[in-house]
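Amino Acid Chain and Its Fold in Token Form
===========================================
Purpose: to set a sequence beside its fold so the mapping can be learned.
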Amino acid sequence: LQVFDEDGKNVTPHPLFQSDPNTAVPRQGKLYFQVFYLTHGSSSTWISKKSTTKSGLDGTAEPGSGQDPTLSLSAVQVGQEEMEEELTEADLDQRVDIYLSETDTLWMFDMPSVMVSVEAEDAGRVLERNKIYVDICKTKAGSERFEERMVQTLAGAAKNKEVQCETIIMEDKGMMVTSWDLDNSLDPSEIEPTSRAEGFGATTGGSSKSPTTKEQEQTVSVSSDRASSLMIPESTVPVRSQEEEKCHSEAILTSENLKQDLVIMERILMENIFQPKLAAYRQIPVLIEPDITSDRGDTATATEEDEEHDKEKKDEGKEGKGFTDPSMKIDKTPEEDAAPRLEQLWSYTCDLTSGHSVSSMAWNKVNPDLLAIGYRECNSKDQKKGLACCWSLKNPMWPERIFQCDHGVTAVDFSLASPNFLAVGTSSGSVAVYDVRSRNDAAFLDSSASLNKHTGAVWQLRWVEQDRGATGGDKKERLMCISADGRVTEWLIQQRLDCIDLMKLRRTEREKKKLPGEKERKSEAPISQRAAGMCFDFHPEDTDIYLAGTDEGHIYQCSCSGKEQVLGTYRGHKGPVYRVAWNPSSTDMFLSCSADWSTILWHRDSQTPLLTFSSVSAFVHDIMWSPKSAFIFAAVKESRVEIWDLSVSIFNPVISHAANPEANLTSILFAKNTNCLLLGDSLGGVGVWELFNLDAPGSNKV
């Protein structure tokens, strides 16, 4: 075969293998063809010529005979040059066998494509990744941390994964309905008038003649057929109605009106359940249910006796658990009635607070029914999160607000200028301010972004008024904290919480008495130069003066006007000072309690203790002066609470009561405007106890 272009030039490709022309002897008697390819515009024509040799067609080589195809090609070329003859019709009709074979493919270069077709399955995912990459590049363009560099990565081979699942079986179901069935199902109100008209006609037209049995059977069959025809399309109606009804019920359950109504109903139920105890707490008369007489005879009388018997059993169970119903009159001797005593009304506890320890309590400055309680882990080894809960007298069974903290809560206090702000201190040293009006449990402000935050536990914090004579919006407050890192700080309420140091507590070396003949020893430097702050209290009249107790057992009288200005040091305790408290009535006196089992009464101008109270060998965790008397204070020692009346005795407490033998008491708080005491324990409960006979003559009530 030869190929010629438009100008008649031979452009037939040469074979890659050239045989030796000396060895290539053309065989005679072979049939040769010459094909010309002529192009005329858009048409093409093939012209072939045949040439023969002397021997004729007998010498034609068969494929697969082992003869080299290149020899045949050279023989064809030689024969073509020697003689060329025109093909006759017989030659054209003669059959010629041509065998074509394909050579092996040689891959010279292979590079996988990095482009994806728009119609491919992964096109959407690739576009999304490209968009994310463009967005990342835009954000990094103006950043100082971005540096442009070149890198070469290898494009991994794409893999297609197929998932085999069970075959989905499709079923077709149908039913026969008529046009009137559809109309009746869409507008069911049209069925009632017709049925009523038929019934009315039956009653009027057939009033003189009752229907026969056959007519009744026909009527029943017709009605059953109609019912069956109506039930077919009604099968689709309940699906739609159930969805609508479900959406309607969800809308009702999530509506604000329903929530408000449920809160009101809950308040009513709580008041009905706790009415006698709340009445005793508020010192108002207890409502007694009237006796209802019944005329049902012996049965009613027996029922009433059973109810009274059950009530007596319940009352006995309550008395065994420490609960007392004020409406129940208990026969006591006159001496017992006159003696001071404690009776528990109820306890603020729930499943959420169980397992925690009550660390601090604080009343709201404006709403005396709102109580904030801080909870921490029972043991230092536990890793439980802290809680700050707001309880209300309207529901003693569940808190109104619950704020989750990452660490144990050690101190809480309400603001006076903004009564909705609750400050919370934790064992990690963080300080947060929550808005109790919001139902969001996130902190309104926190100290996480402060560079000067505490590194130790915040043992106590307090909102302190700056101008006591100001009213309304002119009131200014400062949030003060004392921490285990030895700092007394003032927190600034701005866009974020930040603090400044008012005082850094320093450790003092104790002077050791030198025995006769003993050599002087070198004083060892303390590990830490700062003393851990445990508690503080500000003067009730001059808020620039405050007391600070440390883990060394020392109490410092400091001033806010001068930086690190110590006005006096009171040394009397041999263990960490857990609480200091100014007397609200006699402002020159203050109390302190410590882990050395003692409670000391101090005078501001004397660094020597006036009185030391120690009744049992137990830690004194908390103390508090009574808001109604300058001589009465309360102290908690492990599992007991003691009420001291200095006008009666300075040696023994007037009340020493084991509030909860199963737990240790941790904090104490007097109620406002009522004779009640709140005791927090290590199991997460806060008991409300009523005080009796503490305002008797001789107590010198102030």
